[in-house]
Amino acid sequence: MSLRIAVDIGGTFTDFVCLNEETGQVIDEKAHTTPENFANGVINAIKKTGIDLAETVYFVHGTTVVINAVTERKGAKTALVTTKGFRDVLEIGRANRPDLYNYFYKKPRSFVPRHLRFEVDERLNYKGEVLKGVSEDEVVEIARKIKEEGVAAVAVCLLHSYANPEQERMVGRILARELPGVEITISSDLIKEWREYERTSTTVLNAYVKPAATRYLDTLQERLEEMGLKVEPHAMLSNGGTATFARSKEVPITLIESGPVGGVIGAAALGKIIGEENLITFDIGGTTAKTSLISRGEVKITTDYKLEWTPKFAGYPVKTPIVDIIEIGAGGGSIAWIDDVGVLKVGPQSAGADPGPACYGLGGTQPTLTDANLIAGRIDPGSFLGGEFKINPELARKAMEPIARHFGISIEEAALGVIKTANNNMLNALKLISVRRGYDPRDFVMVAMGGNGAVHGPFLAAELKVGKLIVPNMPATFSAWGMLMTDLRQDFIQTQIMPVNGCDLDRVNAIYQEMEQEAMAVYEKQGISPGDIVFVRTADLRYIGQEHTVRTPVGNGIIREEDLITIRKAFDRNHHQQYTFSLDYAPAEFVNFNLTAFGMVKKPEIKKVPPAGSLHDAIKGERVIDFDEHGRLMSKVYDRGMLGPGHKIQGPAAIEEPKSVTILYPGQTLEVDDYGNLIIYTGV
């Protein structure tokens, strides 16, 4: 038997998906996330299925250990070594004030205190030419001071090292020699892109989480091997690809959004099969709601990610490529509360996995979105998680009482208020990823996933004027399934500013060839043959005089003079898409040259499902569901496992499956396609 396994750790549940390559059987399972030791949740999920890891041919894991180490400030004691005069770049930042009139604004606090930031008297110019070399004695003295401070990790980020990494590498070698056992991160191993603050921030964050990520991945791999795993495990990367645990430990900052991107990649793969290129993904789990946009089959990647960014907080830039996801604190476990001026809020605080929503009966007393959906009849207490986990509606009502009393309304009305508030938060996120980026939602199809995605998705799709919504098979564990659809991926960036017209073509071709050779070396260590490596080239261009750039496709092979015309036209089109104007008469310039290298791996085949019986046989019963402005309506409840191709359902209705439920609103129509997906026509 050949098994392909994916495990995704969420804030509340750990999701497990296993594909038997020989039979095509798919097993999915959920276990409670174990924050005290995330590896336990992974092991518990595997044990619940009873599978034999010795039969595994591929194992991929999405983890929250990196982002948790940052957000909880539980990373390693870290030092920074940088060029003389740039010790305070982390303090200065971009001097951004995202909330200009907030008198209580606080700047992001550096992860490295000033006394642990050290300067080397060296200098390169922007071309990478050496103006002043590195003194080995000076670096040795810095290493002595670092050792006295008991530092566990060191970040090295020298000025303009993206253009010439040799001096930075020399500093890294000396520190590694003088500080055995201390994790060393040099910026040029992560990114070769300009912008000193962003490069320094990224390098520091990588160093900060490296010891914790290494311990976690080593511990998990050891426990998996004890259970019989014989293959090298892989980790899901934030860029939508995967890498071996060994590679991931070198650059753990690439795992910062490890879990959420699996669903985006899965949606892109599903879109190709069913013929939908324009997709908005919508993933609601227990802690957060996440959305991303796929245009013309292309998953959007950004290097402008800011960890912990909010409209009132500048956040911490991470300059590595990350799938463009907007994430808000609005999940099933998000807590409803009253602020200081008496306004109802939902999230970002979450009841998490422990104690969880009040209805779980595990000690939680604060009302959550799950409690509200239970009170509104959208969740059946007897069918939650397939009936294996009992929830208590009375505990949910008791938790909702303080909100009802505050507003002088019934508990049912309070629950609806919580649902409306959460929906508004989610709708804002959906608009940020679509309308605010210049995309018309009416041109897209929404894919709902996560344990709560299909509960809220049909309403939100209609509000956003999206005409069709897809609820895939196993929506509650779809992100884990998506990880099985990923290839290995590495991204390389090289800053080199030059005009498009009259550029040094020899230098341009040399840059791409150097990055391809570096990618080949990385994949050779991971056992990927050259024939399974695919390169995709892009470049970041801008009109001369602009600050920011637009990513533009560049063909493979030798770039010639005539290719520059094609590249320029593509840049103008992309600029118009993003900013609604283009300046085809204005000179443009290259800023960054980018290479994405895919290591192709075998993926599961999505097969059509066999015909099902009568639609009447799928009816489980009826219950009253509160549809807000439509009122409380008696609704038929269907068993999704009994539905098949061609079945059609008119709202209002609920379609239940072991780990999720789809709420079909009045006026909406649901059809089951040949692959078993639920296709909802929202009526807009």
From TrEMBL:
Residues 4-178 form the Hydantoinase/oxoprolinase N-terminal domain. GO terms for molecular function: 5-oxoprolinase (ATP-hydrolyzing) activity. Pfam families: Hydant_A_C, Hydant_A_N, Hydantoinase_A. It comes from the Bacteria. One of its GO terms (biological process) is glutathione metabolic process. Residues 507-675 form the Acetophenone carboxylase-like C-terminal domain. InterPro entries: ACX-like_C, ATPase_NBD, Hydant_A_N, Hydantoinase_A, Oxoprolinase-like. GO terms for cellular component: cytosol. Residues 199-491 form the Hydantoinase A/oxoprolinase domain. This is N-methylhydantoinase A. It comes from Desulfofundulus thermosubterraneus DSM 16057.
